[in-house]
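Possible regression after last week's pipeline update?

I re-ran a chain I had predicted before the update to compare outputs. Posting the input and the new output here so someone can diff against the archived version. Not blocking, just want to make sure nothing changed silently.
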Amino acid sequence: MVCRNILGGIRRFAAPSSRVFHFLLIGLLVRLLLAPWTSYPYDTYPFYGAVVGSLAGIGPYGNVLFTYPPLFSAIIYPFFWTISHFMDPASFGTFAPSMIELSRATGMTVPFITAPVFNMVLKLPLIIGDALVGLTIYRSVNGRAGEALAEKAFLVWFLNPLVIFVSSVHGQFDVLAAYCALVGVLSFGDRRFLMSGAALGLGVLLKLFPAYLVISLGLILLSSMINGLREGRKAESLRPLTSFVLGGALSLLTVLPFLISSSSFLEYIFRRGTYSSVGGMNMWFISPLLSKMGGEGVSGGGAIPLGTALLVLGFVLTVAVTLLAIRKHLVKERLLACSAAVLLVVILTQSVTNPQHLIWLFPFLVLMSCESPRMLTKMYLLTVLGLLYLLCLQSGFVFLYPLAEYVGWPSVSFLNQGVEAFFIGTGLQRAALLSLLGAGGFLTLLSVLLPSRLDYIQVAACRILRRGDGD
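New output (post-update):
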């Protein structure tokens, strides 16, 4: 009886309507077809290092390649531990000598190609994460705006090309942290503070960006507690913040083995804050062009690393945005917008904003579109800009190496020639295009913060549509 109830609950969550179920199947099929035969070697190699290090007993940080918080490694370890009983981990990838010169020339690839089995196992949790975010969006919208809008919201997220590309082609796990952030904010709005703290704590253990939401929501609860204490409601005032902090503390149990064995992994994680490179779809969008024109771009060589300075700036701006929202009494009715504003502050000011970082914001844009449809226009535009940006880094050929190595078509040498011709041959044009796409992303993201009457993206979209109707 209990098992039947559990299975029934899973079925209702995974297939709340026939249309959602059909969209789910289509999205899963596309992802599963792409996942084994694609990868981004430069980003996948650290994951490979974490996997083989964990299987060898030296942990994910033993090879000094993996510089993320430890939870993603803990998530994928059981999958690879199971697979290792049926195949030799040595076959998880292969060294490609023909890629050595390309690696030296671009500095953005490695001469190592992961096997289709490795790619599929690595991306399986990401595909599940895509589905979980979509189904959570459906439930939230269905409760507020009805089934029709909920189905549209699920479709907009789950069949979004950039979402599919990031998880099933690129193989980046931002969606898992985005899911934790989404659940954390929605639980906060439902006053389930223990759940909110735990979800956001897990998010921080995947990627560091949910820490900004922890600070923001923690300040909101702290302000509420202070007001309650002034009014003499001691027990009632302390409970929300206490539950929120307790939830965050409970999330640390997932990485307790790392804390017990060694704290050195913190060195690798916080080393990312010392990076001096800047660029992407943020305020530093001009950096690729400046660097290619012979300058140093935006330098981070001062006494304080630029990455660290921007990290501090992000926290300061998060506090400022939150205090402004509290002062304007916007938190209760505009929690999603306030949370999106915090994420936008991070995305716009951090040293590097890659297209996969847009996944942090997309679930909130979809939910906000129920009341403000213009958010979908921004999401569509960011999707196009993000895909083009990824393809312009080293051309689309760079994602096809597993297909070339393990199927034989196209050949690895053909891909090498294509990537080298694009990366080196286009030179200044490539840098200018990256800066242009970065500027487009920056301006689109910035417009999310503007009121509708000042939204230049929406004004431009309306004019284009009117011109199309006139023609």
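Follow-up from reviewer: compared with the archived run. The two ends are 63 Å apart (CA to CA). Marking as no regression found.
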